Amino acid sequence: MSIQFPKPDPSILARREAIVAGLAALVAPDSLITAEDERRAFETDALTAYRRIPLAVVLPRSTEELSAVMAFLHKEGVNVVARGAGTSLAGGAIPQEDAVVVGVAKMARVLDIDYANRTIRVQSGVTNLSISDAVAAERFFYAPDPSSQLACTIAGNIGMNSGGAHCLKYGVTTNNVLGVKLVLVDGTLVEIGGPYLDSPGLDLLGLVVGSEGQLGVVAEATLRILPMPEDARPVLFGFPTSEAAGGCVAAIIAAGIVPVAIEFMDKLAIEICEDFAHAGYPLDVGALLIIESEGSPAEIDAELAKIIAIAKDYGVTAIKESKSAMETAAIWKGRKSAFGATGRVADYICMDGVIPTGKLPQVLHRLNEIVAELGLRVANVFHAGDGNLHPLVLYNINDPIEQAKAEKAGEEILKLCVEVGGCLTGEHGVGIEKRDLMPFQFSPVDLAQQMRVRAAFDPAWRLNPAKVFPLEGRVAA
Amino acid sequence: MNSVSPRTEAETVEAVTAARAARRPLRIEGGGSRADLGRPVEAETRLSTRGLTGITLYEPRELVISARAGTPLAEIEAALKENNQALPFEPMDHRALYGTQGEPTLGGIAACNISGPRRISAGAARDLLIGLRFVNGRGEIVKTGGRVMKNVTGLDLVKLLCGSHGTLAVITEATFKVLPHPAFAGTLALYGLADGKAVAALCAALGTPLSVSAAAHLPAGLATPEPLTLFRFEGPQASVDERLSVLRRTLVPFEQGEALAPDYAGALWRAIRNVVPLVSPPEAAVWRISVQPTRAPKLVDLLLKQIAVRYYYDWGGGLVWLAVAATGDAGAAAIRAALAQAGNGQTIGHATLVRAPDDLRRNVDVFEPLAAPLLKLTKDIKASFDPDGILNPGRMYPGI
Lengths: 477, 400
Hints:
The complex is a heterodimer of chains A (477) and B (400). By secondary structure, chain A is of the alpha+beta class. Chain A has helices spanning 10-14, 16-24, 36-39, 63-76, 128-136, 154-160, 167-170, 204-208, 242-254, 267-277, 297-313, 325-336, 338-345, 360-373, 400-419, 438-441, 444-457; strands at residues 32-33, 56-58, 79-83, 99-103, 110-114, 119-123, 140-141, 177-183, 189-193, 217-224, 226-227, 231-239, 261-266, 287-295, 318-321, 347-350, 377-383, 391-395. Chain A has a 7-stranded antiparallel β-sheet with strand order 15-12-14-13-17-18-16, with helices on both faces. A 5-stranded antiparallel β-sheet of chain A has the order 5-6-10-8-9. In chain A, strands 1-2-4-3 form a 4-stranded mixed β-sheet, covered by helices on one side. Chain A is globular. Chain B has 400 residues and is of the alpha+beta class. Chain B folds into 3 domains: 2-180, Uridine Diphospho-n-acetylenolpyruvylglucosamine Reductase, domain 3, CATH 3.30.465; 184-271, Alpha-Beta Plaits (2-Layer Sandwich); 276-363, Alpha-Beta Plaits, CATH 3.30.70. Chain B contains 14 helices and 18 strands.
């Protein structure tokens, strides 16, 4: 199995020079990338097995420039692939030969911080982490924290409705965005929501978040910032088996305890991350939970005491509380560098399925079987509290047979997630990676309704057209 | 009015298909407790979801509940209570405000995105709604979202449907995330603060790490002779007591505070949630204004200079409930002009006319008017669900 791209439109390729010249008239020279070796830097994202060199890359400096670029490309009938930092694991930012990449990397200013109202307004190219950094001195933070937060942009977070380790308590991007300025396919700038709750009319904001660059390009965003908790303390819990750890997660949630984060790593993931980050993870266990509790020291003590009691019921063999801010940072560094650290060991595909938390032990068991039957290895690292799995299936990218097996394993795992009542993707998005699996989760009628809504924004399918919806059977308004 | 009350999703499809074939618009209704929320619907047949009842899935261990749209909220809450759980967004009950008798339903809450005071800390109905089944205006059964907490698979039609007031589809089943019911609630009250100072205190409290779960301010004469500023904490009692006393010390620059008796405070929060302070006189029009909190006092001040209003603040100042005489345009022009003026060129909020006689709601923009490109998108989205305009036509905007 390999993922197909639509055939490039020869009439667009033939007009490349005129299109580039038109763009050159709209933006500064350093905002337009045309040389082939420089365009190559934009040929893929974090789904590196697939790549296409775009027609051109344009990086507007302002909302007005972005709007003008979009209007021009619309007039010329050119496809647009929006791009933040290019960290999509689902291939959401992979271009096509006949598309122009419109990136927001040069729109990266914080525009306004309002502590009294607990909001921040930013250009969409700011990185996720820099938002929290901008408000840290006043002890505020921006809650969604995807592992790629050092690099990924808020534009990409909005495009994919990104989550992170702490969304068990704080929700994902859609729960933390109050408004956007969105450039529509024809260049029209619209303002949806703002520094207040619940935008008027239909919830277009909720629709735009997670729309994978198919409804428009986000230029600015107003986000909710939150006061930092008084204190936060991660604790490592080592278990003999993955199943025991999975059972413990389900029991914690069932007991009515919702810690700010419950992260899971299996033996292979622990070894890979510990080797990279030296976080102090126990190596003599079959699976590890990182459970973070926050509040006042007394509140943390009380919550952790309950969690420890449950963990003992599930045969916990190692418990290690963070004793300092440095230890806390190391614990999280290890977890958040899991994908990068794995990349040093082997090529991998990272799945993102979600399952009901009660099915964790059963799914972990079956998932390991699926991978073993194909003769591959899997490192499991995921957000266990909300059932969001990230199995990393290891393979060798230069071995086409192994790549096909890895993709097969990924497909089987995602079908398993849907079968037990879950979904294909919890926070990475569909992109091209899961596009062709959509019919496993949705009926043709379900998909057609989504596509008609999409077409209300982009009737000609110009925006990120190769993604999300299977290439066959597409419908317009 | 003719009425049809399907008992299954298949019967819902039949009813919608028949209405479409006959070009006979339907007025979609759950328990009818919010029938006057929105513009008057231009339809002579009512489709009631009251026959679609029953909890279809409840997994307390996974914090998730699904029920058919017409299931009474009371039934949902009773089931949750048995497991010490609750809908986190504390949905408002509109019966006092409208003087209606019906049973609020889960589908109605989803369709109208109904939240309450805890919206500022736990999110709105739209934030906790994770899955829907619905019948669109083409008579098709569609599902979106699911039963898991995180789901970015495809377009988020759950959000789009939530708060669409029945204009896009007939919701047949809704799935919500639930949370443990807070073990204890404590409320700190400050007395005598003028609006500006009160909202500043609310904002200050919400900017602390003390996890204030609700924050409201009632001017003099609404609940108590003096102005009353309220801060609610929820959780284990030891934690609530500790946080309440820390906030009390923090707020000394504003006023000495006192902790209220839990029963009294509980009743106050229910009244705030259900807009009880503005129920009388029943002929007054009532507005709901979502606004940037720190600008709310300015907005009210601008209005007080022009029209007689009674009002209070919820959501830490971010929600202003306002009662005005139901004459002329019920203050619509004045309120929207004041919003623009208080925003000083920025859009800082929006106003919804929640209670007014039919005629007024037909002639005044009940929901904030949309900019032209957004109105066009809204119309096109409506057509993508309901091409013949048979579902709640005119509920949100003329023709929509």
